[in-house]
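Supplementary Methods, section 5.1.

A reviewer requested that the exact input to the structure prediction be made available. We therefore reproduce it here, unchanged from the version used in the analyses.
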Amino acid sequence: MVQEKGSISIHTENIFPIIKKFLYSDHEIFLRELVSNAVDATQKVKRLSSLGQYNKELGDLRVIVSVDENAKTITISDRGIGMTAEEIKKYINQIAFSGATEFMEKFKEAKDANEIIGRFGMGFYSAFMVADKVEIQTLSYQEGAEPARWICDGSTEFEITDGNRTERGTDIILYINSENEEFLEKHRIQEILDKYAKFLPVPIQFGTRTTSMPDGEDEQGETKYKQVEIDNIINNPNPIWTKQPSELNDEDYLNFYHELYPLAEDPLFWIHLNVDYPFNLTGVLYFPKLKNEFEFQRNKIKLFSRQVFITDEVKDIVPEFLMLLHGVIDSPDIPLNVSRSFLQADSNVKKINSYITRKVADKLGELYRKDRKAYEEKWSDIGLFVKYGAISEEKFYEKAKDFLLLTNTKKEFYTLDEYNEKVKALQTDKEGRVVYLYTNDAEKQDAFIQSALKRSYDVLVMDSPLDNHFIQHLETKLEKVSIKRVDADVLDRLIQKDDSLSHVLTEDESNKVKEIFEKAINNSNMSVTVEGLSADELPVTITMEEWMRRMKEMARMGGGGMQFYGALPDTYKVAINGNHKLINRILNAGNEAQQTALAKQAFDLALLSQGMLKGADLTAFVERSVNMIGDQDKA
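The structure derived from this sequence is encoded token-by-token as follows.
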């Protein structure tokens, strides 16, 4: 019989339009909310039992989600604490809501369903995003409790009557409206449960599934299998982050990684997070082998609150440089219905961010100290994390400078201090600055690298997309250190010494050489100078100044404020080696046409060595070379 009819709240005439308007884009979270409520009710009865306040059999505590396509209903059933009619009035009817009109005005631009649900305690009412009518059938755990039924058709009117539930717990029955019939499709419900309920602490069942089971042996002694129907349990209620590290081995961590990311390669290593003061946080973060950008986009860190999935957009919780990591973070201090504005403002989130930074730095330092060789072997994978962290987080840099490695063309590894000690004797210029030389393309810049190695200079390899920014950062941190690309100038100008060479040409000869090359090159973006270089250096060297090249590279990477440099034409310095015998030959060639042809050939060789000779110019160079070889044969 009907016990009571009434209105949900004096101030909530607009509650259902609000739900449908503001939560429209995020309909699927209704299932997360209702399943989470069922799990909470189940955990409460377990707690009461453990405290001796409930002495009956707990029985099977799974939460069951079911779909009836004919009746167009979704039911979420639990065997938790249940509710009395009075509790329904208290928890369901009296929504923490005041001034619906004021609310509508304040949030008319809102797009974040989580923010609205979280602020107004509307988790249960998210059911009305997809349902025209919602029914509750419930029986409280309390001795002598009577079953109760609550029903509401999406208006502000409700009805409470006697219920028909015979076992402790609650059924929430949603009568799905015509716009949301996608949620009556089993694969859609499976998809949502896989997303939000994968690690809930109570078993969640959704129908059954077919699996293969051993069924004796065949005549050859091979195991036979048969197909059987079993309960489709969605979740792993005891994921590894809920356990102590001492309970786990490497295989446990690897198995869990593949549970999260079935298609990924094994990770390099992992960090188990476990802290209960000054905030609560558990989780496992994995350092992956990054093969491509798609993998980074797909396999993100997942944020949970008490094992309920919230989001994989965690950039306010995890430092930006660690967004490349994979894994899970779980903190009850982060509410289930969390908004971006909450994450940005909450002090616990800031503490979590700092804690994760410190834990990662400590783990990397420990790996480096414990087994440097193994650490060096992983450097090609983890160097990106460490460099990005050093650039973006001052506190991380302070720790990382002890285990941040530089690699040279001989594949040797050095810490910052070790490298400075290695090169300072030979690579200190006349101003007392230590010059680090580097290549970002060892094959293309091989001629420059070989010239440096002949002088016993060392050349670092800096060829990742991040290295341009990393070099800038190092120059601000390292005292009296300058970092220059090995092809940014001739060696004697990259590392200027007091005893720099002069060339053997007279002033008139030098001017004549400059004139010949300017005519042969015929390009106003090429600035020609005659230099005193070693006789065994190349006759012509083409370089772009270090500062200009860096600005252009940063502009290509989208560096703020660098677009101006990106729009400038490429300008180069052409250094003519006044001590090379070919230059003397050009001066003494029989006529102006021969001088120009030889100069053009020498210039094109320099372009070719830089990978800058292309198209018609390359074809002309090849033809000219063939003709010159032919002329030599005739001679």
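Residues 2-206 form a domain with the Heat Shock Protein 90 fold (CATH 3.30.565.10). These observations are discussed further in the main text.
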